[in-house]
Design brief:
By secondary structure, the chain is α+β, with helices and mostly antiparallel strands. Helices cover 12% and strands 21% of the residues.
Length: 433
């Protein structure tokens, strides 16, 4: 966009160039037909004198559904050329509304993402690329409301610089009063009465409460979030929970009761970190597409980050870790949090003292996803064998009679990889298939 100082210099130079020509006619470069001025006293704008009949120029922007024509590039200042696309036949593709005034009328003010914006034509590349995200508001049918400030990066977009560039020659460069912003910048949370920062209706859904957004938009605003989001079918897009899009990331997730009756927050299942733990997380009071993630890990009391999102002031309760069992080498995990296909070798141990049948005593080896170490052992029933070291907090049933500690550390048994009687694989975790 053209800075104010450069605009003054350009308009001054342009005024001198056409000062003696207002009563005549001008021709667009490459066009043999003269283009009459609307009025001998008409304003001179950034594109020169008004062109009342831009239809005599080559057309453009048909694919975007806008009205624009090709204007000679050498008649536009260098500073504004990047705001327009190039015509295949030469020149810049400039919206008719700008050509008809010579670019001497500032764009209409509008409300974008709850803040100040200006109405710009879909014929302008940056508007066309983001048309699905931009609201129409009070703008014309082929326009969208472009924000003055990027709603996520909170940096000027340059769109509103046109208020200074598009003025009548000789007019003072004063900004029109912007419309009052809907969202109160003094508060962290986005006002629920304001229009959504990003309207998800025009985006591709990727989950029940999430939509796809261009990866580059997220990377430019909050690059640390890129690795926290799942990719969409189109790898150039990322699956973003709607609450982030609609509030611009300014929200407090609802409080809920999570694992082990601990304090938690409702978090979208669309996040890979939540999906990976879905079997262990309760829904609690959360929405249909959410799960309750604890503020602190029930295994080691470390913060999970669920209660440090956006406007969240943090947890109000201390950590509630799972009780220890099996001499501190395992934890009491609620039976509802253990997948049914992983219970065969689990038992209650002293967890039954808390509530009989309500907990499984799950070894830390499993909870911490520790690697299994290879081992060798000699047993009076099985003889010499090789296998992997598994916590002896597990219930090996009658098969435990054919197992010994062997080369494993204290608290572990050497589980054979092959049945000593049949030679068939035992399926012990960590054994080669």
């Amino acid at each position: 966009m053209l800075p104010a100082k450069a605009c003054l210099q350009f308009v001054a130079a342009l005024t001198l160039a056409v000062a003696g020509c207002n009563g005549g006619a001008i021709s667009n470069a490459g066009d043999d037909d003269p283009i009459d001025l609307v009025d001998p006293s008409a304003c001179i704008g950034v594109f020169g004198a008004p062109i009342p009949n831009p239809g005599v120029l080559p057309g453009c922007c048909e694919a975007e559904g806008g009205a624009a024509h090709c204007f000679a590039a050498d008649r536009a200042p260098q500073a504004v050329k990047n705001a327009f696309s190039s015509c295949a036949s030469g020149g810049l593709c400039v919206p008719d509304t700008m050509l008809e005034t010579g670019g001497s009328v500032a764009p209409t003010s509008c409300t974008a993402f709850g803040g100040d914006g200006v109405c710009l034509s879909v014929c302008m590349p940056q508007v066309a690329e983001n048309a699905a995200l931009l609201a129409q508001d009070v703008c014309g049918a082929t326009e969208r409301c472009a924000p003055c400030i990027h709603p996520i990066m909170m940096m000027p977009t340059g769109a509103c610089d046109l208020r200074e560039v598009m003025v009548c020659a000789g007019e003072p460069l004063t900004d029109p009063p912007p419309p009052s912003a809907c969202d109160d910048p003094a508060t962290c949370e986005y006002e629920p009465s304001c229009p959504p920062v990003v309207s998800v209706e025009s985006l591709t859904p990727c989950a029940g409460d999430a939509h796809c957004l261009d990866r580059s938009v997220i990377a430019g605003a909050t690059p640390e979030l890129v690795n926290e989001l799942a990719p969409c079918t189109d790898a150039s897009m990322l699956c973003v929970p709607d609450v982030f899009l609609e509030t611009g990331g300014k929200f407090t997730p609802p409080t809920c009761t999570s694992v082990n009756e601990s304090e938690g927050r409702c978090v979208s299942r669309a996040l890979p970190s939540v999906t990976a733990q879905a079997a262990m997380l309760p829904q609690s009071s959360c929405g249909t597409f959410e799960l309750c993630v604890p503020c602190y890990s029930p295994l080691d009391s470390s913060p999970t980050g669920a209660c440090a999102t956006s406007c969240d002031l943090g947890p109000t309760e201390p950590p509630k870790p799972f009780a220890s069992c099996c001499e501190g080498r395992a934890r009491c995990i609620p039976t509802a949090s253990v997948p049914g296909d992983q219970t065969d070798n689990l038992e209650g141990h002293e967890c039954d003292d808390l509530a009989e049948g309500a907990y499984f005593c799950v070894p830390n080896q499993i909870l911490n996803d520790e690697p299994t170490e290879p081992c060798e052992a000699d047993n009076f029933l099985a003889g010499y064998y090789t296998g992997v070291c598994l916590s002896d907090c597990l219930d090996f049933g009658i098969g435990g009679l054919a197992m010994s500690g062997g080369s494993c550390a204290d608290g572990y048994s050497c589980a054979p990889c092959e049945n000593p009687l049949t030679g068939a694989p035992t399926g012990a975790p960590g054994c080669a298939p």
